[in-house]
């Protein structure tokens, strides 16, 4: 009995930049990098809250870079276990970024009266880019889970 379902695999080489869910690595880098830069450039009022935001942005930026480099090199070798790793990572990154975006919004609201206008604008921009990064990770997570389910 043969299966009519096509085998799903992760892309290798520059095809990483042409397949849809993996193309989302680029906006993840851009939005995550902007969150990292904006939070690092503002005055930190709540160390634990904004420390979490910095941890999430640096962690996701680093691991997305590592994952994309591994895909470029073809280190996954077409194994289906890498599809599960991809789905797990993007699920965790989406959850982490959602928590970071909410905490950054909380910190921004809390300091709106005591911060300078420039600092407040940078905090607002960090919140917007954190939610955009969350959205891209959620979309990537959804398509990674669909790829994992069909593998």
From TrEMBL:
Keywords, in A-Z order: Lipoprotein, Membrane, Transmembrane, Transmembrane helix
Main location as per UniProt: membrane
Residues spanning the membrane: 23-46, 52-73, 94-112, 124-146
Localisation: Membrane
Superkingdom, taxonomy of origin: Eukaryota
InterPro entries: MAL, Marvel, MARVEL-CKLF_proteins
Entry membrane topology: Multi-pass membrane protein
CC terms in the record's Gene Ontology section: membrane
A molecular function GO annotation: structural constituent of myelin sheath
Domain MARVEL, first and last residues per copy: 16-149
Gene Ontology biological-process annotations: myelination
Family stated for the protein in its record: Belongs to the MAL family.
Protein name (record): Myelin and lymphocyte protein
Species, as recorded: Mauremys mutica (yellowpond turtle)
Source lineage: Eukaryota, Metazoa, Chordata, Craniata, Vertebrata
